[in-house]
Amino acid sequence: MSIYPEEFDVIVVGGGHAGCEAALSTSRMGCKTLLLTMNLDTIGQMSCNPAIGGIAKGQMVREIDALGGVMGKIADKSAIQYRCLNRSKGPAVWSPRAQCDRTFYKIFMKQLIENQKNLVVQQQEVTRILVGDNSVCGVETKTGIVYKSKIVILTTGTFLNGLIHIGLKNFPGGRYSEAPSVGITESLKSLGFEVGRLKTGTPPRINSQTVDYTKLEIQYGDEEPIFFSHSKFPQDSLLTTVLQGKQLPCWITYTNETTHKIILDNLDRSPLYTGVIKGIGPRYCPSIEDKVVKFKDKPRHQVFLEPEGVYTQEIYCNGISTSLPQDVQEKIVKSLPGCEHAQIVRYGYAVEYDFCQPTQLYHTLETKLVEGLYFAGQINGTTGYEEAAAQGLIAGINAVLKLRKEEPFILRRDEAYIGVLIDDLVTKGVLDPYRMFTSRAEFRLLLRTDNADLRLMDYGYKFGLINETQYREFCKYRDKLTNFISFLEINKPFNTNTTFATILRQGEKIENLITEIKSQYSVDLEQKNTYWDEQKLAKEAEIQIKYSGYIQRQLKEVEKLKKLEKKKIPEDIDYTKIPGLLKEAQIKLAQIKPKTIGQAMRISGVTPSDIAILMVYIKHLQEKKV
Q1: What mean pLDDT do residues 172-182 have?
Q2: 376: nearest Cα among 1, 128, 11
């Protein structure tokens, strides 16, 4: 064993989406950071779907960007198609999504990591977390090197004792052709952490040149894309250089009766249905086996054929994630219209991996058992690039604040989807891989795609992750927006007695009024060459005006929640001594150790009557002290 000569402020273990955001945030906030990864060539790897965003996930990427994270910028830089999901519904659920060039995404992320000041990157496999006096003090690698630090952020993805399944054959791996991480799980168990097992999967990829596109439905990108980044339009992105303004289409095919018969006839060869796989898979992103078995009334299931990039013929078959044997996968693919002669270039597989119940964390993502140790990403039971990146960013920010002895950064549920994500994890835990949805956010009308900057950019600037130039530009936009909304509330079109705002609330679109508005409005609406242009400002004003009644109603609910969040629970409280508290509530409250009454209310198994008893008991304790 040898000790590395340099001591670091922060060590980040893992170079996936969580690890990249964590390492970049800590180093950009001025901390000497070490990023350790098993393979330098897979930094920023998109392990599964070559896409960023989607339902609720797109909102999170916009939030990451508003806080100063990098996922949105890299996605914009490597995007090959943009689509906003849920356009037919209200703005509360509009969700941007981008198909990305998998190779370029990884290249751009690695480039950013390698050129970041205060950040050292090394290819090493960590096998042990070093702890002294219940505080982390470093890590040890497979080669026996000890790296010292008072902060360690674990972002291990699907690599902890990873096991890959294809049919009834299985072999160790975190991703196909990549070794698992062995040792960290055992180290965590020895420290007292509760460790579980989860499963995820990926579909086969096929050669584009072997697909008959005349039999498929084509799906084009949006003519006016919603970019993820709030900074200037990515002028050097693939969209404007390689593709020169064009976007690559995706294609749609469907499973059928033949496909379903092939799957049902081979369930005895499925590791999922023969009990070989023990880990629990994602409920909302099931394998094709699960879809066929559990939804027998469905005659077909949609399959999206998505290009993996500009300079490759690989096509991602979104919708047929599977761990069935390779010969069965061949039959499944060839049963799809348009894919009768398709050649599989990569087979689908499932991967089992270890995770730690996130109820063992504070809202900062620091562990309760070991001071200075943080978890982010799939180690916390989540699934998805966006959930991982969000956690990495929050863990990184809080790690730096801890070193500075400053107040922690905890986003509320009404402030961001990221706040919902983390509160759900640490308060409720997970039974299966956690995926964010708009339905999980009770204040989703406040957490829209369009206003992520208004909600969070002040924080990003405060932490030094948003630069002065961009922040000044944002402040001008915010002031202009406030003035513009006031103008619309007061002024009327010529020859009418109704204000612009009232007309908008009656269903009119702002673009139909813009000529009249500009003829009266004295302030120049345009801010050329920036994200905050006339179109964005007008659209934001329209949304705020049209939904003002609903927004005010949600803000009143937020105020009620804030009152409950202000009611602190004593850290030394003994729940077993509270008369009348149900046994299940005692166990759950003792395990999770909620900081406030608001958090206690969200714990599964804690009833309203338990909360009432708890509040009376706390009041009694306070009166005794007085």
Answers
A1: 94
A2: 11
CB burial of residue 427 (10 Å; 0-12, 13-18, 19+): buried
- In the structure, what pLDDT confidence band is assigned to residue 451 with cuts at 50, 70 and 90? very high
The strand pairing partners of 254, in sequence order, are 302
Residues contacting residue 96 through CB under 8 Å, at least 6 positions apart: 53, 58, 61, 62, 82, 83, 84, 85, 225, 226, 227, 228, 449
- 517/369 Cα distance (integer angstroms): 59
- What pTM does this model have? 0.94
CA-atom Rg of the chain in angstroms: 26
d(CA 122, CA 125) in angstroms, rounded, equals 9
What 8-state DSSP symbol labels residue 284?
Answer: T
All structural domains of the chain, each given as residue ranges with its CATH number in brackets, are 2-201+353-462 (3.50.50.60), 205-349 (2.40.30.260), 468-550 (1.10.10), 567-625 (1.10.150.570)
522-538 average pLDDT score: 65
> Any bridge partners for residue 131, and if so which?
136
Q: And the tokens for 283?
A: 């409920």
Cα torsion 147, 153, 155, 156 to 10°: value is 40
Q: Residue 587 has which token pair?
A: 């166990």
Q: Which of 22, 15, 12, 14 is nearest to 395 (CA)?
A: 22
Q: How far apart are the first and last CA of the chain?
A: 56
Q: Per the structure block, which two tokens stand in for 320?
A: 């047929």
Q: Which tokens go with 277?
A: 């796989």
- pLDDT tens-digit map of 64-108: 999 999 999 999 989 999 999 999 999 999 999 999 999 999 999
For residue 573, count CB atoms less than 10 angstroms from its CB and return exposed for 0-12, middle for 13-18, buried for 19 or more: middle
d(C-alpha 232, C-alpha 562), whole Å = 35
User: Are 13 and 160 in contact, with CB atoms under 8 Å apart?
Assistant: no
* pLDDT per position as a tens digit, 593-608: 999 999 999 998 888 8
For residue 322, count other CB atoms closer than 10 A to its CB: 27
Judge contact between 527 and 473, C-beta under 8 A.
Answer: yes
